[in-house]
Design goal:
It holds the Pfam family UbiA. Keywords: Heme biosynthesis, Membrane, Transferase, Transmembrane, Transmembrane helix. This is Heme O synthase. It is a multi-pass membrane protein. The structure is a single chain. By secondary structure, the chain is mostly helical. It folds into three domains: 50 residues; 152 residues, Orthogonal Bundle (Tetracycline Repressor, domain 2); 123 residues, UbiA prenyltransferase (Four Helix Bundle (Hemerythrin (Met), subunit A)). 70% of the residues lie in helices and 1% in strands. A hairpin with a 6-residue loop joins strand 1 and strand 2. The longest helix has 40 residues.
Length: 448
């Protein structure tokens, strides 16, 4: 069988030496038949099939290619694709793509993108809460974009100023600046440009109040909180103020003002950050000590004071749900849900207070990660619009007016009945005038 195949292939492959006339005749007949069949199937390409019907030269190799005109496979020579990859244009494109990927990765890490997204989420929640009955979707997008840029700038400046400290810590030594993947002037230029652009965006697309809050928060984080981390443990509380400003920024961008109702979410963020960072500082005590940071947990060998501070701030979160309901921001269901959620995180803090171990601290840290998104989701789900707040306020006023009127009616009724009873029971102390003696004086009653 294989012998027959070899004999058939030898008939198809012309010899480079002296050609056999019978072989040439058989090949011509073969290509002529192929041309007839192709012409019957594809009559629109007569020139193509005429080339097929002609017998090839014995010196030309047979290769498979594609026709550009009709996409039909024909016998032709094809250029080598590997030669295209070695052209200078392709090399330059590859270099540009690799450079964009490199700096994109560096910018992503400098900005601490996941942390910045959390800041954007709190700012967006504040915008929705401050929008009332109608929400400006474009304004929400501009606010989130501007907040993201300012947060990226603050985080980048933080890494520029802490490059030496980050190089000493296991958790941060692979960042772009300590690892040498990007230069300090480049990172500083990126941070300042994106910060100015974000502040300008908030000023032009929202209002000056929101832009001022963003700029002040950037300055507080980069130029106050960052150096304070190497000076005093109070840096944790200053950092909590920084984290509480973004929802206030969102509220101001939506309403153009700051009111008492806007303080619910900032207060929750402030008190939430204390147990969150206390747990983190306890878990990374050795790393923070190697980096030269003055954290509260480093001066607390047993961990009792750290756990007590975390527990106390967890308990401060308890009344926020009731205040949100009492101030007309949410419905009564949020009060119940917030109380249960706060008691849950307080239970983990109390467990850490009783047994100051790494496992308990890690459990409290994970509970704090769950608390904030659930709390903000509850605020958004149970929030009341301006119309609903007005309806509830009117209903409360009507109820209060009804109670006041009812109290007045009961008081008037009691007064009338009391006066009647006194009038009937008062005995006369002077003469009683009875007919037919009208000349007698009018009786006088004793004052009671």
């Amino acid at each position: 069988m294989w012998r027959n195949c070899r004999s058939f292939s030898s008939k198809l492959r012309p010899s480079s030496s002296s050609p056999n006339p019978s072989t040439t005749t058989s090949m011509s007949t073969f290509y002529r038949h192929v041309g007839v069949v192709r012409r019957a199937l594809y009559p629109y390409s007569s020139s193509l099939y005429s080339s097929l019907s002609s017998s090839p030269s014995s010196s030309d190799p047979i290769r498979l290619g594609y026709s550009n005109s009709h996409g039909v496979r024909v016998f032709s020579s094809v250029a080598d694709p590997s030669s295209l990859a070695s052209t200078p244009a392709v090399s330059r494109v590859r270099e540009v793509v690799d450079l964009a990927r490199h700096y994109g990765s560096c910018y992503w890490e400098l900005s601490k993108a996941r942390l910045s997204m959390l800041v954007v989420a709190t700012s967006g929640t504040g915008f929705v809460l401050g929008s009332g009955s109608t929400m400006d979707v474009a304004g929400l997008c501009w606010t989130c974009a501007g907040t993201m840029m300012v947060a990226a700038s603050a985080n980048s400046l933080n890494q520029v100023f802490e490059i030496k400290n980050d190089a000493k810590m296991k958790r941060t030594r692979r960042r772009p600046l300590p690892s040498g993947r990007i230069t300090v002037p480049h990172a500083f230029t990126w941070a300042t440009s994106v910060g100015l652009a974000g502040t300008a965006m908030l000023a032009t697309k929202t209002n000056i109040l929101a832009a001022g809050l963003a700029a002040s928060n950037l300055i507080l984080y980069a130029f106050v909180y960052t150096p304070l981390k190497q000076i005093h443990p109070v840096n944790t509380w200053v950092g909590a103020i920084v984290g509480a400003i973004p929802p206030l920024l969102g509220w101001a961008a939506a309403s153009g003002q700051i009111s008492l109702n806007s303080m619910i979410l900032p207060a929750a963020l402030y008190f939430w950050q204390i147990p969150h960072f206390m747990a983190l500082a306890y878990l990374c005590r050795d790393d923070y000590a190697a980096g030269g940071y003055k954290m509260f947990s480093l001066a607390d060998a047993s961990g009792q004071r750290t756990a007590a501070v975390a527990l106390r701030n967890c308990l401060y979160l308890v009344p926020l749900g009731f205040l949100a309901y009492d101030w007309g921001i949410t419905s009564g269901w949020f009060c119940l849900e917030s109380s249960i959620l706060t008691l849950a995180i307080s239970a983990t803090a109390f467990s850490f207070y009783r047994h100051c171990t790494m496992q308990k601290a890690r459990r409290m840290f994970h509970a704090s990660l769950l608390y904030l998104p659930i709390f903000m989701s509850g605020l958004l789900f149970h929030r009341l619009s301006d119309n609903e707040q007005t309806m509830e306020a009117d209903s409360s006023e009507r109820m209060l007016d009804g109670l006041v009127q009812e109290d007045r009616y009961i008081a008037q009724k009691n007064k009338t009945e009391h006066s009647r009873g006194v009038a009937q029971s008062r005995p006369p102390v002077a003469y009683a005038s009875i007919a037919p003696f009208p000349f007698l004086p009018v009786p006088v009653y004793a004052d009671s």
